[in-house]
Amino acid sequence: MRLQGKTALVTGGASGFGAEIAATFAREGARVTIMDLNEAGAKAQAEACGNGAVAVGGDVTKAADIKRAVEAATQGGRLDIVVNNAGWTHRNKPIMEVTEDEFDKVYAINVKSLYHMTAATVPVMRAQGGGVVINIGSTAGIRPRPGLTWYNSTKGAVNLLSRSMAVELAPDKIRVNCVAPVMGATGLLSAFMGVEDTPENRAKFISTIPLGRMSQPKDIANACLYLASDEAEFITGVILEVDGGRTI
Fold first, then answer.
1. 29 Cβ partners below 8 Å, 6+ apart?
2. Does the pLDDT at position 114 exceed 90?
3. Is the pLDDT of residue 139 over 90?
4. Predicted confidence (pLDDT) at residue 186 exceeds the cutoff of 90
5. φ, ψ for residue 216, nearest 5 deg
C-alpha cells in the first residue's frame, strides 16, 4: 500500500473527483478525512471508503470550518497529505454577464479556501517535519475556454500559487504540487459547457481533446496518489496536466 499509515484530508470529497481521490487514498492505506458542504454525502462516502475514514461538514470559504476539519484529520499530531479539491464555476457565459456575487463566490471557493487551508495546515506540517499539499487546478488556467474567464482566472491563480508555495515551503520539507484536469463528467459539466449536457454537446468539447474523451475521476485520483506517495518525494512545484493532450 502506497499510503500506509498516512493521514489525509480531502476537500469536496463527497462526489466527483474528490470522492474518487478519497476512495483511492483509503484503498492505499491512508486514514482519510472528507470535508464537504454536503455533510450527508461526505458521511456516505467516508463509510464507502472504509479504513477509518471520517467526514466533516463544512464550508471551505470559512476559516473556522477549515480549522475544524484539520483538527479532525490530524491524528497523533500528524497530517501528512492535504488535497484542496473543492471547487465551483459560474456558468459558461459572456464575461460581462457574470455577476459580482458569482465573481466573489468563484474566488472564495477556488482561491481563498487555499489561503485558509494553508494557514491551518502549514503549522502542523512544519511541526512534524514535512507534508504534501496537492491543489486541484485546471487546464482552464493554462489554455482557457471562452465564456469562463473569471473561472479560468481562479485556476490560473491556483496553478501559479502552487508553484510559489512549493518554493517557499521547500525548506520545511512540504511538497506542493498541482493537478490540472481537463473537463470531466462531474456535476459541474453543464455549467462548464454553458449548454445542456447532451451527447451532441459533449462531442463538441471532446473533439478538442486529442485522446478523445473527458477526464474521469480515476484519472485525477491516480495522479494525486502518485504525487502524495513517497515515489514522488523529489517532486514539488509541478503542474501535472491530466488532460488527454488538451493543452498541447
1. 1, 2, 3, 4, 5, 6, 51
2. yes
3. yes
4. no
5. -120, 155
Closest CA to 11 of 50, 65, 47: 65
**Residues sharing a CB contact under 8 Å with residue 21, sequence separation 6 or more, in sequence order:** 10, 13, 83, 85, 217, 220, 221, 224, 225
Distance CA 179, CA 17 (A): 11
Identify the band that residue 43 occupies on the pLDDT scale cut at 50, 70 and 90. Answer: very high
Q: Is 151 in the active site?
A: yes
Structural domains for the chain: 7-242 (3.40.50.720)
What pTM does this model have?
Answer: 0.96
Dist CA 59 CA 80 (whole Å): 22
Query: Which helix (H) or strand (E) is 180 found in, with range?
Result: strand 174-181
Residues in a beta bridge with 132: 81, 175
pLDDT surpasses 80 at 10: yes
Are 214 and 207 in contact by the 8 Å Cβ rule? The answer is no
Determine the Cα–Cα distance for residues 243 and 230; give it in Å rounded to an integer.
24
